[in-house]
Amino acid sequence: MGLLRMLSRSALICNVCFLLAISILWYKHPVNAGFASLTIVMGFFLSVVLNLIILVWLLVRRLTKKTINEVPRYLILLNGGFLTIQLILLFT
Question: Each residue's pLDDT tens digit in the chain (92 positions)?
């Protein structure tokens, strides 16, 4: 498995943690503190960084006319959509 494909899948896992972190902030039910801190760090910090790295990497590959066959199209669209949502939440 290529590095770009592995990072894209890792970013998808971090994006799921982003959704969990948002749900933890909305619902005030008691949760495990270790689980909450892990999902918040992976969701709010690591996912933004990974999404930026991956999408810039894909953009550079696209501009240099190299093929992007190793990452499925749906994964690129999902990571791009999550990055858009994260940047909107970050700057508002």
Answer: 589 999 999 999 999 999 999 988 888 776 788 888 889 899 999 999 999 999 999 999 889 988 778 889 999 999 999 999 999 988 88
Q: What's the pTM?
A: 0.86
How buried is 8 (Cβ within 10 angstroms: 0-12 exposed, 13-18 middle, 19+ buried)? buried
Q: For the chain, how many residues are written? A: 92
> 16 near 22, Cβ under 8 Å?
no
SS3 32: coil
Pull the structure tokens for residue 60. Answer: 């550079």
